[in-house]
Amino acid sequence: MARTLARPATLAATQAHRRKTDWHALTAHAILVAAVALLAFPLYYAFVISTQTLSEVTTMPPKPWPSGALFGNYVDAWQRANMGRLLVNSAIVALSVAIGKIAISLLSAFAIVYFDFRGKHVVFWMIFVTLMLPVPVRIVSTYQVMSVLGWVNTYWGLAVPLMASATGTFLFRQFFRTIPDSLAEAAQLDGAGPMRFLWTILLPLSKANMAALFVILFVAGWNDYLWPLMITNTPDMRTAVIGIETLVPRTSQLPEWNIAMAAAMMVLLPPVAVIVAMQRWFVKGLIETEK
Amino acid sequence: MKRSVFPNRWLPYALVAPQIVITVVFFFWPAFDSLRLSLYRASPFGDRLIFVGLTNFERLFRDDASLRSLVTSFVFSFAVTFVGLALALLLAALANAKIRGLTVYRSLLLWPYGIAPAIAGIIWLFVFHPSYGILPWLLSFVTAYQFNWFLKGWVAMVLIIVAAIWKQFGYNLAFYLAGLQAIETSVLEAASVDGAGPVRRFFTITFPLLSPVTFFLFTLNMTFSFFDSFGLVHAVTQGGPGDATSILVYRAWKDGFEGLQLGYSAAQSVVLMALVMLLTAFQFRFAEKKVTY
């Protein structure tokens, strides 16, 4: 940035500035550390509860440090919620929605940018309109369509209807338009067909965008609530976010919050791990998908 | 526009086919069906549909409960968005300095985005738990008031607002920090030479320069609090106590799936559809502003 333009200053002024910014920097660090700690506290507290026994959880005052029941609680939560099955379901749904959306939107963006065909504008507007039709605005009728197709309580039903993506299509469309025309011309001169061009040139160039989209879509797919709640009706087809509700103690039940928190920790770990591991792509994805 | 175009008659149709098939079958068909259903009522035995015209909408707009639900939705969304953004901006402005380790802070701020609203809600449900939660316990030293969200609607509302803000807060703060770092210090220094105090500098220079970030975060938080918060309400308060936290999406779902009032639920869907269109139009109306990041 042009910030360097503001550099020329007298030495004295720079030194005075430096002494002042030191205080400033210290305050900044203090505030940020406090913010980070405050954000982390609920998660830390949930983890602590997941390591305590039932009597420790229900004894006041609360005990804010870990105890020894970690292993027992997690095994208990795993068995009672049929956690293995739930996590597998979530992984299948999140991965297939993310990969399917990327593939489908990449292909449509390729068609829209690199071909002239009748009805192109209609196609474009049809995709655009889906932005205004999220699941909540078509709750009952989507369920009816699913039962007509016989897709209620199936993996097909959980994943396929979520694979259309206006944001993904627009993202790839924007990106393809920044690629110089000469690349496609050169490919055509070399006798490469469109699919070969897509596979050997466009795909490798799109890697960063695909990674960015993947993080956002995986997290959204894993954490989605309304769709799997509507489409599934047996415990073995539930996804993890919904399935662990059976472990949350209601008023009349034994307050086994340690088991509930152990389950919560296991369900939140995969998406949080993806964000932490792919942070660079995550930030890119957040910005690009909202443009 | 691209000038180099592949000459092929059928391939582009094959390429857009998956997208279009899904769009038509799972978006357009149900959306039109919602419009149609909203004009019908299921017969007492649920075996056929009776045409009732606009009765569902009439009932919707006359019903006190739906008005309350609309108010609840707006209170929730605006509280999450405005309180969340104001807090994030305040902290970011206070912490805006040329310091090292900003990327480390960013990593430590972004992770809560990955937590499902329902899971965030379950964690906060326990923090607020009247008998075992740490928050009512701490508050009991200050006041004798019982912060029991099972009984008191406003406490339940605060509970879901806090859980939603918690989930969103980290990246709100991270984006404001990045936005502030990108502002030229020379502009602020010039204003300071002209005698503008820090508060005045903030409102006349910093805040307007941050408007693209604010707009971006505003849209993200509004969409989140309007739609993605369904899981939070369903997993934590189930709309209660009473209907204190029954937001629009939750009500449409409940009337359709638990009440089996298909036409009435569809009418609510149609109203929601209109709201989304307004939001999208708003977003695109101001889209030109969002070019600088």
Shape of chain A: globular
CATH homologous superfamily placement of the domain at 82-248 and 266-290 in chain A: MetI-like
- Given as residue ranges, the uncertain stretches of chain B (5+ residues, pLDDT < 50) are 289-293
Q: Please identify the structural class of chain B as seen in this structure.
A: mainly alpha
Instruction: State the helical fraction of chain A.
Output: over 70%
Number of H/I helices of chain B: 13
Please identify the top-level CATH class of chain B: Mainly Alpha
Distance between the termini of chain A: 22 Å
Oligomer class: heterodimer
DSSP, total strands of chain A: 0
Fourth-tier CATH superfamily name of chain B: MetI-like
User: Greatest chain-chain interface?
Assistant: A-B, 110 and 100 residues
Describe the protein in words.
The complex is a heterodimer of chains A (291) and B (293). Chain A is mainly alpha-helical and 291 residues long. Chain A has a domain at 82-248 and 266-290: MetI-like (MetI-like fold), CATH 1.10.3720. Chain A contains 15 helices and no strands. In chain A, helix 1 packs antiparallel against helix 14 (257-277), helix 3 packs across helix 14 (257-277) and helix 11 crosses helix 15. Chain A is globular and about 75 Å long. Residues 1-14 of chain A have low confidence and may be disordered. Chain B is mainly α and 293 residues long. Chain B has a single domain, classed as MetI-like fold (Orthogonal Bundle), CATH 1.10.3720. Chain B is built from 13 helices and two strands; from the N terminus they run αββαααααααααααα. A two-stranded antiparallel sheet of chain B has the order 1-2. In chain B, strand 1 and strand 2 (49-51) form a beta hairpin. In chain B, helix 4 (102-110) packs antiparallel against helix 7, helix 7 packs antiparallel against helix 11 (230-237) and helix 12 packs antiparallel against helix 13. Chain B starts with 10 loop residues before the first helix and ends in an 8-residue tail after the last helix. In chain B, 42% of the residues are buried. Mean pLDDT of chain B is 84; it is low at 289-293. Classes of the chains: A mainly alpha (291), B mainly alpha (293). Chains A and B meet through helix 1, helix 4, helix 5, helix 6 and helix 9 of A and helix 1, helix 4, helix 5, helix 7 and helix 8 of B.
